[in-house]
Every structure is written in structure tokens, then in C-alpha cells.
Amino acid sequence: MPRTRTIYVCNSCGATSLKWQGRCTECGQWNTLVETVEAPRASSPAATALRAARPQQLSSVETNGIARTPVPITELNRVLGGGIVSGSLVLIGGDPGVGKSTLLLQLSEVMCASMPSVLYVSGEESTQQIRLRASRTGRIPDNLWVLAETNVEAILDHVEQSRPGLAVVDSIQTVYSEGVESAAGGVSQVRECTMALMRAAKSTGIPIFLVGHVTKEGEIAGPRVLEHIVDTVLYLEGDRFHQYRLLRAAKNRFGSTNEVGVFEMTQEGLTEVPNPSEAFLSERPEDTVGSTVGVVMEGTRPLLVEVQALTSYAGSGVPRRTANGLDYSRLLLLAAVLGKRVGLKLSDQDVYANVVGGLRLDEPAADLAVAVAIASSASNRAVHPETVLVGEVGLSGELRSVSQLDRRLAEAAKLGFTRAVCPRTPRSLSAPEGMQLVQVRTLAEAIARSLASPRAGE
Ligand SMILES: Nc1ncnc2c1ncn2[C@@H]1O[C@H](COP(=O)(O)OP(=O)(O)OP(=O)(O)O)[C@@H](O)[C@H]1O
Ligand SMILES: [Mg+2]
User: Fold this and answer.
1) Which of 81, 258, 382, 385 fits a disulfide with 299 by CB distance 3.0 to 4.6 angstroms?
2) 182 & 330 share domain
């Protein structure tokens, strides 16, 4: 029996240390070292593999070995880079209850049509629970196999024996390896089990999908090195209280990380949303004070989103700022620019800003939509109907140009918007058919050209 020892592994970069330290000497991060019990190996497989490998002329390396199986779920297929690559290890992370198991069960179901069999392993749910979910999501194919198991060696035995076309392990935090003494979900267990699954995927050519839990900070729990080991990391985003879910690639060794898949959680499971802009604007009330429409790029796709703002008198207290779906400090910045550069009196006003549909806006191109929504609520004037707003707001109150403006405007025109307020661009910009362009230099000008006259009696 090899002797075990206690080491400390950095949760951020994976460096190891024999004693605990407040700061990792490798990556400089604080409080990332986690106590881990490790059994030393006689000879590490990586070292053995290294000795077995021989240098090869790069030009003579065969490239036709990468086989992709297309996924009939278009939104997922695009995010994966055009299909599932044989022998790849894919990690899907997301908040509790966001729909990770649902997505992978649906994937397993549809892949049964083009594969001899699919094995879905769950360490979290009983086979009865999986069956219940499957009844909700669709027809259950006969070649879909389920296994409630947490021992990684047992899982790999089943994979070896049954040789499925695809294997799913839900979740990596519940599986454990007999060779590691610490509890399942611990840093070394997660790392060892992922390495074992990676070796199996590479040696058999069977693609394996893993579910990974995320921490409160939104990162995949366990060592960050987990993200380095796997080929692809996808995040399923959105909260449980909104029906929309966004699937993004944070890393992809076989495709772009720019693509985003949009789904809706329904009674039947996750359904694709082929035209997300239309869906996000479907409940927008027309001609409402404090509501604007902006265009953000989600990967390579322009997406129209509704932004709402409400300003209300704060009384004698300190005025509050609340941001939902956008960066809080960005909201503070916009409120400050509106106060100082536009002369809007917000110092005695609470400001609430919200992005409709559970989306999160991280792009500065959404600044104008947020700023005009606040100005609209504060002045009680609605935005001109069928107007879309795009632009980054600078600290001097200037409106800055944004990338891919033509694509954003084309998407807005496609959805029936006839007027766009946007920054002046160095190159002349041609308006999409049926759309009037209002190109302005400053936020003050943008507000003046966006808001309709005050309502009668207000
Ligand atoms: N009958 C139903 N109709 C609509 N939505 C449902 C129904 N049953 C479950 N859901 C949705 O499915 C979600 C659960 O999905 P799922 O179990 O796939 O999530 P998960 O990400 O795997 O969660 P966990 O991290 O707990 O494993 C619920 O939060 C709920 O939104
Ligand atoms: Mg689950």
C-alpha cells in the first residue's frame, strides 16, 4: 500500500506545495491553497506515455483522425464547433437547477439516432429520477443506457465493455477514484477522476461529457486545472426564474469560443430559440417610459434586448442604485455621466436598471440603451417608437463607436426597427433598408434625439 501524504494544491493554477501558505508562490493568488491527501504513484502514466512517445515530423501527422458527429440540436451543435469530436472531453458547468442534466439527457436522446448506444451515468440521481426527466423531454430510445454509479473505475469498466458512441457523467464532483483517499468532490478526487476519464476518452475515441458544479463566484468547483485538462468548457447561464438559458463556450480546442446557443426552459425540457431577438422583445410594451432597446453581440450574433430603468425620489436617504443584468459599477458610471455631462438631476433619485429576460449585458455598446432608459424615466418621456439605441458612453459624455455596428443595425432592421440612434463613425455607414440613422456625437444629443415630447398632462 503506497504511503499517503498531505499536500496543498492551488485551486487556481494547480501548483502544489508541501506546506500551507496564504499566497500561491506560482500564480500569486491569495487563499487558493487547499489541503489534499495524495497517494504517490510508483510511476505516473504521464511519465510512461512520455517515454513511449517518439518525435514525429509535423508534416507527416495525419489530420483526418478528427471525426465529428453532428448534433441535431442546432444551438448546441454550433457552440460545440460543428459537432461532437470523437475522443473529446467536454465539461458543462452552470448554477444549480439551471438545466445541465436536462440538456445532457436531451443530447443523449438525440444522439441515439446516429450512434449504436449512449451511456448516461449519474452520481446524483437514481435511474427512476432520470426516467422521469426523460419522460418529460421526449421519446426514450431503446439504445439509451443509464447507470447510477459514483466509482470512476466502475464507470470506466462499463464504458470499456459497452463501448457507447457517447458517455455522459453527471457530475464530476460526485465521482471518486479508489486510488485517492479524500472525499468525492475534493480537489484531488476531481482532478484524478477527470484525468482518468480523459485517458479513457483519448484511448477509446469515445467522447465524454461531464457536468461540473459551479461555486458561488460562478467558476467550476474544484481545481481550475480541471478546465485546463478538458478539451471544451461550456457554461449554461441564466437563472431559474427566467425561462431563457444561454450556452457559451469558455474554451474549445475544436472550435470557436464566440458562439452562443439560446434555449428556453419549457415543460418539455430545453427547446431551441432560433430567433432570440424576437423572443427577448416579445413582451415589450410599446411607448413606455423607461424602456429602451439596445443591440449587443453575443459571440458572432447580434441580439436585441430590452433595458428598463426606473428613477424614483429617494427622500432624505442616500440614493440607491440597483443593477439587474448589468455591471453595477457601469450603472454608477452612467448615472455620474448623466448627472455631470447631461445635467440630469439624479442625486436625490433612486435608480433601478434591469435587463429583461434574465440576460446579462457586459458590452459597453449597451451603455446608450441604459443611459437613455434612465433619462426617459427621469424626464417621464418615452423613447420614439421603433427606435434602437447603440453606443458606448465615455466619461466626457461623448458617444463612442462600437464594433460591428452594421451587423447590429441590420438585425434591428430585420425586426422592424425603423430608426437607430448611434455614434458617428469614422467610415460612412450605410443604413439598412427602411431604417433612418441618427448619428450623434454626445450622450446629451442622443437623449434629445431619442426621447419623444413630454406626454400631455405630465
Ligand atoms: N415540469 C417542468 N416544467 C418546466 N420546467 C421544469 C419542469 N421540471 C423541471 N423543470 C426545470 O428544470 C430545472 C432542473 O433542471 P436540471 O435538473 O436539468 O438542472 P441541473 O442544472 O442539472 O441542476 P443540478 O445542479 O441540481 O443538478 C428546474 O430548475 C426547472 O427550471
Ligand atoms: Mg443535475
Assistant:
1) 258
2) no
Q: How far apart are CA 391 and CA 404, in angstroms?
A: 11
**What is the average per-residue pLDDT within 93-105?**
92
Integer-rounded Cα Rg, in Å, for the chain is: 26
Check whether residue 303 and residue 426 sit in a common domain: yes
Q: Are residues 27 and 104 in the same domain?
A: no
pLDDT tens figures, 356-388:
877 888 899 999 999 999 999 999 999 988 999
CA of 101 to the centre of ligand 1 (A): 8
> Which of 239, 274, 309 is the last residue before a domain boundary?
274
Say how far apart CA 39 and CA 1 lie, in whole Å: 9
Q: How confident is the model at residue 49 (pLDDT cuts 50, 70, 90)?
A: very low
Looking at the CA of residue 213, tell me the nearest atom of ligand 1: 25
Closest C-alpha among 165, 331, 169, 362 to residue 260: 362
Of the three residues 259, 274, 289, the one that is the final residue of a domain is 274
| Cell matching residue 189 | 478526487
Q: Look up the pTM and report it.
A: 0.78
Q: For residue 46, what pLDDT band results from cuts at 50, 70 and 90?
A: very low
Residue to probe by mutation, ligand 1, list 91, 101, 209, 240, most atoms within 8 Å of CB: 101
Choose the residue to mutate in 95, 98, 244 for probing ligand 1, maximizing ligand atoms within 8 Å of C-beta. 98
How many folded domains does the chain comprise?
A: 3
